[in-house]
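User: quick one, fold this
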Amino acid sequence: MELVNTLGRRKTAVARIYLSEGKGNITVNKREFKEYFPTLALQYIATQPLALLEVQDKYDIKVTLEGGGPKGQAEALRLAITRALMEVNAESRKELKTAGFVTRDPREVERKKPGRPKARKRFQFSKR
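Assistant:
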């Protein structure tokens, strides 16, 4: 039984996963996967790499998620699963790369600047 430990990040969300051979059970923060991600869209995003390689019921995944919101967490989990699957089988990298799962999305929220209402928005200019 091999155990692969990888990390995935997106925005401020961090997903740490432990992938091992099993029956396809996914546990997120000691809760059932479908209970943690109730919407089908988030479930789909998180399990895309498994569906692409058709290995949904081959591995058990234990996940520790922290930070961010539901979408960021789902995308962080997708990256972590992708990295783990590449560690298990190096030939799967090409398929995952063409699907766009290998690249970490670097976009972060820009900080709010002093003297402004938001990061880039300015208060209304008055000539007089």
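User: anything notable?
Assistant: The radius of gyration is 18 Å.
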